[in-house]
Amino acid sequence: MQQPEAGDKSRSLPSPCPPQASLTDVSFYTRRCITDDLSWSLVTVPPLTELCLQHIAHNFENNPILNDLLPEHQKKVVEKLSTSLPLSVTANRVSHEEYWKRCCMERWQVCDVSNYGDSWKRMFFERHLENILKFFIPNTTDPDQVLDLIPLCQDYVRKLEINQFLPPLQVDPKEEGHDLSDAEDEAEMGEVYKHHYNLKELITSLPHLEELHLIYDVKSCGMNFEWNLFNFTELDCSNLASAVRMCRNLKVFKLTRSKVDDEKIKLLARSLQNHPRLLELDLSHNLIRDHGAQAIGKLISHSKLETLNLCNNQICHLGAQALAQGLAESSTLTSLNLRLNFVEDKGGEAIGRALLTNTSLKCLHLGSNNLSEPTAAVFSQVLAQNTSLTSINFSCNHLGLDGGKQLLAGLANNKTLTELDLRHAEVEQETDFRIHEIVWANREAVRLASLQHPSTEPSE
To answer: Sign of the CA dihedral 80, 82, 83, 87?
Structure first.
């Protein structure tokens, strides 16, 4: 073998492959690459599809192509959408409930979706619209805040509960440069500043609205309290009457704690007569007197009302007699609440006589109406003949010992009454106990009958 020359250094270099390394040892030739991100791995590199979906979600406001995606891809995009996107972008494009649930949970602390037909989207739009209306200041707030929202929310709003209406900001006439010549001009200007937001255009644009709960009140006015903040003006009433008359799907209408008097209820009652779908009317805690009750009596006989609440008004016996006449002619009313009025015995007797012919009423509340033994005598006949009443409340009256005994006598053969409230009605304790026994037995009989023959009526 030829030996290398002394000056040839290249021939004296060691072999690139150590004797112990095999030519098939791949790990020896692999280069190591150390990245700045220690968590980086080929496994964590997102697929191209995922990158595309992230891009769509990030640019959704400018290019909302959600409906062009596959269902599984739509769900992933919706999970990444921001809840701060404009409603003009999401309202009619995003129907996924999980997105609207996030919108609700991030905005309100208490979210009971069962009050909104288990629909998070409905909850969001109803509460969002309610918040705008509660803080709307006429002549100050931009009306487009409401008008622009109508085409976005009209398919989802079923119920509105507005417990506050703010009046316009009253401007000092001197600052505006007006010269009020007399007190009449000043009074006229003061009246203008009392009117609230006109609901007519909004309500008539909500085709699915079924429930409307209104309170013309101001919450948390603090040291700025003024009586005119709580006025429900004639113009407010006129606008509202026109609105509810045109809201043909309205089933429940509540106007409470709003100082509604006789003149205003007459206007509202005329608008609600022959309403095709109205079933419940709540006018509790207002200022309705006998003339207003007469208008409501006509409404009872010319509508399909099932529930009427007139609690805490100022109705006396003439108004109660008018209501009794409407009750006698009604075939749909099932619940009447007259608690905290002043119907007295003349009114109580009239209602009792109406129930001798009425076969629809099931629940009657006459608590705190200064009733006494004559009313109990008439209702003794009612309990002996009427087979539709299931609940009567006579609490906080003056029926007395004889009144209680007459009610007991009327219950002798009654099998339908399951509740008779005689608390603080001055009825003898033993009589009250015996009445309770009969009512409890009726209730148990009804319960057992319902177990043996469960209702088979189809649900709506």
So the answer is: negative
Alpha-carbon gap, residue 119 to 98, rounded angstroms = 10
Token pair, residue 27, equals 């790990």
Residues 134 and 255 in one domain: yes
Q: For 257, left (φ over 0), alpha (ψ -120 to 50), or beta? A: left
Domain check: are 61 and 146 in the same one? no
Residues 158 and 204 in one domain: yes
Is there a domain that residue 398 lies in?
no
pLDDT in tens, 29-79: 555 555 566 776 666 777 888 889 899 999 999 999 998 899 999 999 999
First to last CA, the chain: 106
Claim to verify: residue 66 and residue 117 sit in the same structural domain: no
Q: Do residues 122 and 65 both lie within one domain?
A: no
> Quick one: how many helices (H) and strands (E) in the chain?
18, 9
Query: Which residues are paired to 365 by β-bridges?
Result: 337, 393
Bridge partner list, 281: 253, 308
Q: Domain boundary residue among 106, 129, 146?
A: 106
Q: What is the C-alpha separation between 458 and 460, in angstroms, rounded? A: 7
Mean pLDDT of the chain: 87
Residue 353: per-residue pLDDT: 97
The 3-state DSSP class for residue 60 equals coil
**HEC readout, 70-107:** CHHHHHHHHHHCCCCCCHHHHCCCCCCHHHHHHHHHHH
Q: Quick one: which of 305, 345, 340, 302 has its CA closest to 321? A: 345
Distance CA 427, CA 423 (A): 8
**Residue 124 and residue 243 in one domain:** yes
- Extended beta strands in 266-374, E state: 280-282, 307-309, 335-337, 363-365
For residue 188, the model assigns a pLDDT of 46
Band the pLDDT of 190: cuts 50, 70, 90: very low
Report pLDDT digits (tens) over 344-360.
999 999 999 999 999 99
- Could you tell me which residues are beta bridge partners of residue 307? 280, 335
How many domains does the chain contain in total?
2
Read off the amino acid at residue 406: Q
Range of the domain at 97: 48-106
Examine the domain organization and report whether 148 and 208 are in the same domain: yes
Shared domain for 67 and 143, answered yes or no, is no
CA distance 17 to 137: 88
| Helix or strand run (H / E) with residue 119 | none
Q: Does residue 223 form part of some domain?
A: yes
222-246 pLDDT, tens digit per residue, is 677 776 667 889 999 999 999 999 9
